[in-house]
Amino acid sequence: MADVEECVFCKVARGKIPAYILHKDEHVLAFHDINPQAPVHVLIVPIKHITDLEAIGAEDADIVARMFGVARKVAQELRFEANGYRLVINNGRPAGQIVPHLHLHVLSGRSFGWPPG
Ligand code: AMP
Ligand code: ZN
Fold it and tell me: What's the predicted TM-score (pTM) here?
């Protein structure tokens, strides 16, 4: 599929683009964001090319659950769990999604405003 061939996060998952990887298993990859918006900024992505929340199928329920589990594991391993952290999904271009491959932003290490910008 052309989308997959050109997808930056699929390339990271296949090792075609280098990244600072924190976790990789059969279904989920976690790596540091290249342009961090907080002292901790980790991306959690499914290995499967899923473009956005609307593209999640019933068969993907386990993958999505694992993404949250990996976010929690990263928080424990990097020891920012006690300081609080924010999970963000920018879904769709108007909401700020630039990379059309589902991803969870994990942000920590500073305080966060509400509502988000
Ligand atoms: P979004 O705007 O929600 O689509 O977020 C995309 C994120 O991917 C941004 O925070 C980018 O800094 C990040 N990003 C893009 N390319 C890479 C890359 N090769 N390695 C790590 N992070 C990346
Ligand atoms: Zn992809």
Answer: 0.97
